[in-house]
Design goal:
This protein is mostly beta strands and about 300 residues long. It folds into two domains: about 20-165, Jelly Rolls; about 170-295, Jelly Rolls, CATH 2.60.120. It has strands at about 15, 35-40, 50-65, 70-80, 80-85, 90, 95-100, 105-110, 115-125, 140, 150, 160-165, 175-180, 180, 190-195, 205-210, 220-225, 230-235, 240-245, 245-250, 255-260, 265-270, 275-280, 290-295. Strands 2, 3, 4, 5, 6, 7, 8, 9, 10, 11 and 12 form an eleven-stranded mixed sheet that branches. Strand 5 and strand 6 form a beta hairpin. The protein is globular.
């Protein structure tokens, strides 16, 4: 599958964006000191409902209190940053995740001597508000840059907004079972929900998906299907082969796969190690009929 230029991608096609091609630079979406952003996906790539970027906090970096007219979520990849969300302060570590609700004030700090990096999601997509700005950033002076924080404990009901992923959280591999679909078209899969409506999200989901390689598995572990929402996959480990209307590609750890609304897509692992990715869906999937699998309709006569 020929990789589509990032600003000329065809509609209703899946695209792969290489992590090695990301370039970090100062960006208005994170108005701080020592912070850089590497955009992965926004409206220029055909995303209707979300934007995705990597954010890097250098040692001593700070982002002052601010808020957005949209939701933000994050997944920590490296380092130990501090984040303040409303009246809560968290000391984060790799594989912590969190939700910044609509209009909630938040601020960042990296007091450690090593850089911190996290995957960041904005949804709906930022746009000028009242003809002002491009990144949807508004001052929240009541939120101080955090100088300390508590470890994430998602079992504590008085510490909302954040959680932590561990491999031990995963149920044994099986068929997919999640909001919007239950069936056998996606097999040998493990899913761990993170950001969803239970955490307070109203516009998107973030979760971990893992496929364990199986030489005897079906050719497409996840059969080709279509969604009425944008879907993104950021690979944490392993390699996968992708399928899209007869065309194929591949993606590896650090790459991002984007399947916009209406794009056909399917996967199978091609590495010895498990394929593990952070998956994003925006807007929230409907309670049913969120997956349209080609093979489900193969036995029906198409007359138009």
């Amino acid at each position: 599958m020929t990789q589509v230029a990032e600003n000329t991608r065809a509609p209703h096609m899946m695209s792969v964006y290489r992590g090695q091609d990301r370039q970090f630079a100062e960006h208005p979406s994170e108005p701080g000191q020592g912070v850089r952003v590497a955009p992965f996906l926004n409206h220029e790539q055909g995303a209707t409902h979300l934007s995705v970027a990597l954010v890097e906090l250098q040692p001593g970096a700070t982002v002052p209190g601010h808020r957005h007219p949209f939701e933000e979520s994050f997944f920590v990849l490296e380092g130990n940053p501090l984040v303040a969300i409303a009246d809560k302060r968290y000391a984060l570590k790799p594989h912590d995740f969190g939700l910044v609700p609509f209009a909630a004030g938040h601020a960042w700090n990296n007091p450690s001597d090593t850089p911190a990096r996290f995957l960041r999601v904005h949804t709906p997509h930022p746009r000028p508000i009242g003809g002002r700005g491009t990144a949807g950033v508004f001052s929240a002076p009541e939120i101080a840059v955090p100088v300390d924080g508590v470890p994430v404990d998602e079992l504590d009901p008085v510490k909302p907004f954040a959680g932590h992923f561990e491999q031990s959280d995963m149920a044994p591999p099986g068929s997919i079972s999640m909001p919007g679909y239950h069936g056998t078209n996606i097999q040998n899969v493990q899913i761990r929900m993170m950001v969803d409506d239970l955490l307070g999200s109203r516009h998107h989901t973030m979760f971990i998906v893992q496929f364990t390689p199986n030489p005897g598995a079906i050719p497409q572990t996840a059969k080709e299907h279509i969604h009425p929402f944008d879907e993104v996959y950021y690979l944490l480990s392993g390699q996968t082969k992708t399928f899209c209307d007869g065309e194929t590609n591949h993606a590896a750890a650090g790459d991002l796969i984007f399947a916009p609304v209406g794009a056909s897509h399917g996967f199978t692992p091609i590495s010895k190690e498990p394929v593990c990715w952070v998956e994003l869906q925006a807007p929230l999937p409907p309670a049913s009929d969120a997956f349209l699998f080609h093979n489900d309709w193969a036995g029906h006569t198409n007359i138009g």
